[in-house]
Each structure stands twice: as C-alpha cells, then as structure tokens.
Fold this protein.
Amino acid sequence: MAIGLDYVQLESWDDAQKQLLRFLKDFPDSPAQDQALYGLLTADMKQGKLADAKKQLSDLKRRFPLSHATEEASRLLAAAR
C-alpha cells in the first residue's frame, strides 16, 4: 500500500490506482484498507472521476465510519463540489 500512496504523493494517478486496487484485493483484512480507499478516492478526484470518488467515499463510510480517513475524504469531496 505504501507504494500506492507514494504514487499519490507523486501525482502519478494511474500507477496509484493500480497499486491501491491491488492492495485492496490482495489484503482485504488489512487494517490499512481505509488509507488505501482514501488514496484511491484522491486519485479518482484528481483525474476528474467524481462518480468513482463518491463510490470510494461510500465504501469508506460503510466500512470505516469512525476512521480519520473517512472524515478527511468527506471534507475533500465536499470541497470539490
């Protein structure tokens, strides 16, 4: 997952998506799933994929309602509207 988040920092959105989606699939029980979803949401937003970003936020809210990542993602998406 760290590589995917590094790609987010580098603004390499396609690479970030590939790495984060792979992490979400390969490690479904990882405690870092919320961070991966947040990174994926960020990459989607930066590419103008608001529908996909909304899906990531929905997943975050459903699976991690108390996570800091969920709170940050909600703010990020609200600011983009």
About this structure: DSSP finds five helices and no strands in the chain. Helices lie at 2-9, 13-26, 33-46, 50-63, 68-80. The chain has a mean pLDDT of 92. Residues 13-26 form the longest helix (14 residues).
